[in-house]
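P.,

For your records, the input lines for the assembly:
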Amino acid sequence: MNGHCLCGAVSITTPATTEMGACHCGACRRWGGGPLLTVHCGPDVGFNGTDQIAIYPSSQWAERAFCRQCGTHLYYKLLATGEYFVPAGVFDSADFELGSQIYVDKKPAYYAFANQTAMLTEQQVIAQYAPPGDDAAG
Ligand SMILES: [Zn+2]
Ligand SMILES: [Zn+2]
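Structure tokens returned:
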């Protein structure tokens, strides 16, 4: 699948997938102004325009990247596995299915998705992904 940032300085190529998830955590909502909707792309993601990619280490286990020119959010990456979670809107395709929502206990009351999905709380996410002792979210 192909995608690119708003200004076109950075483009992305990923394996084909339809799996998408939503994160309601405070870090994601502060980063993007709302819940983060990402396509689960795995580790085999290619970029053009890497000199325009700025990387923010948002926690001990993940980093977030954006275009230096236009600010488009390019990915959330889990450092331990190298997996990329690319915002759905970056892609030319819209053929995705929202399969999971995480940090559902951190979601503010002012919105709610009608989609029927798996729902994971912060505790369930940490048990699944984060090394013990680290702070939540990031
Ligand atoms: Zn850009
Ligand atoms: Zn999040």
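Two observations worth noting. The pocket of zinc ion (ligand 2) is lined by residues 23, 25, 27-28, 36, 103, 137 (CB under 6 Å). The mean pLDDT is 94.

Regards
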